[in-house]
Specification:
single chain, Ribosomal Protein L4, Chain: A, 2 domains
């Protein structure tokens, strides 16, 4: 099992923790990681773009001028694409960009992402993140003690003071153990997790 250091809120090392190899020590599957990121970004797309084709724009029922003898190019409708107010060629229509991944594939992608963070020494465990009140300055002090400026902070359920305290800090995102995803794990430079959050992750995904 991989051993990582455990830090307190003052940034001092207070021990170590063994991470479950079935989550934090798997063989990295880059294909599934890529697929998971593409899936998440695709599922965010609204797919509501729309433009009218020549069949949908109004007008155009009459031939603009007779076929021959005018000196103009022949035209059958003033709503053809080359006309102002005409329809759009190959116009975009609403569509669903989302696609599915199997549950085992999603789990393998997430464990691969977490493993990559552990291997790159970008997975930091803190013993706890407890605040008596909601205060952004207090959370920022903890980040400065850990020398962190862009991170995904994984918290255990019910830690609202820490969750709300980090809300207004740039480049910091909080997530609960049941909401972590591959995109966020890879987007941020570092993943910070409390010991309680690590235990929850190992319980859910082991």
């Amino acid at each position: 099992m991989a051993n990582v250091s455990v830090y307190n809120m003052e940034g001092k090392e207070v021990g170590t923790i063994e991470l479950n190899d079935s989550i934090f020590g798997v063989k990295i599957n880059e294909h599934l990681v890529h697929m998971a990121v593409v899936r998440q970004l695709a599922n965010r797309r609204q797919g509501t773009q729309k433009a009218k084709t020549r069949a949908e724009v109004s007008g155009g029922g009459k031939k603009p001028w007779r076929q021959k003898g005018t000196g103009h190019a022949r035209q059958g409708s003033n709503r053809s694409p080359q006309w102002k107010g005409g329809g759009v060629v190959f116009a975009p229509t609403p569509r669903d960009y989302s696609f599915k991944m199997n549950r085992k594939e999603r789990r393998a992608a997430l464990t691969s992402a977490l493993t990559s963070r552990v291997e790159d020494n970008k997975f930091i465990v803190v013993d706890e993140l407890k605040f008596d009140e909601i205060k952004t300055k207090s959370f920022k002090t903890v980040l400065d003690n850990l020398n962190i400026n862009k991170a995904l902070v994984v918290l255990e359920d019910g830690n609202l003071n820490a969750e709300i305290s980090a809300r207004n800090i740039a480049d910091i995102k909080t997530a609960r153990t049941n909401t972590i995803n591959v995109y966020d794990v890879l987007k941020y430079n570092t993943v910070i997790a409390t010991k309680a959050a690590v235990a929850d992750i190992e319980e859910v995904y082991a």
